[in-house]
């Protein structure tokens, strides 16, 4: 019984923000250019990519965008020809930014509201891994007020406080059949919050290259009074007391980014970013229950994640005064070690390609589109806790659109 419970709790996805749950959809211009932006001063998305660049923006901004995310994953159990696939669900990460400062002033204020983590996965209740996961709906929203100061014509700095709100709803089967032969069910629901900060510096070099360095701190997110809802045979109801709650806390990793911008002509902008995510802070997953029984004990599960990195590159071409064309791509390593891969985030090393275009609807009104395709390398694994063994193959498709007003 305790092993069943341990496997259930070990899969709670809000504690498993692998690179697969790092949304990275924070601006349509930046997505179109391969997610580059740390070394550029393009628009209000600098609030997130590099607060130091905000003071270099020639305009004030109000902008918002959305990037519907379609996650398609398949699983082939080891030693079989069976295949299981996630159902068609669409997650909706969004961004909203505002940047303001007096004209020609040395400072600007900014506010960002964005979704740094999230996931929407539904494997159904008939696949082989139903005792690990049936469905997941994960949302995280960050709110970041920001200040940026231009120290000189060639350098500016900035920083902001980050408040993170998270919400998770996970369902899975429990191998405890009732008289009709139906599996037991477990549902874990909870919300929590965390705090952190984001700071950056932006340089303009004599050669015309721009350089940005950004650091987003660790967020220790805590879930208090999360609901643990169990549907089990009546004979076992006392082993899973209802109602019941849990408390858990985790460190979401810090991220260090270095970005470059290069402008070979008035029509071209080239950019490159390197990101290092400090996932090694995530070592264990622990739960404290308000009510314990001999079958429902507090749990402690190792994770032992490793640091991960991503390499990004992109370009923008100004076709005319109204039309901008963008393209890019990159590679990202996984933070999940062998033996820890789970179906809510079947993470693996991945590469991606992006494209986009921007169109000026009016002098101060911009419409931007992007599209991204991600290919995760197939990964054959046996999870050390659930013993779920097989091969995951995953593709991600992400269109996006945003509207920006600047003055």
Automatic annotation (TrEMBL):
GO terms for cellular component: cell outer membrane. The keyword Zinc-finger does not apply. InterPro entries: OMPP1/FadL/TodX. GO terms for molecular function: long-chain fatty acid transporting porin activity. It is a multi-pass membrane protein. The keyword Nucleotide-binding does not apply. It is found in: Cell outer membrane. Residues 1-18 form the signal peptide. Keywords: Cell outer membrane, Membrane, Signal, Transmembrane, Transmembrane beta strand. Pfam families: Toluene_X. Belongs to the OmpP1/FadL family. This is Long-chain fatty acid transporter.
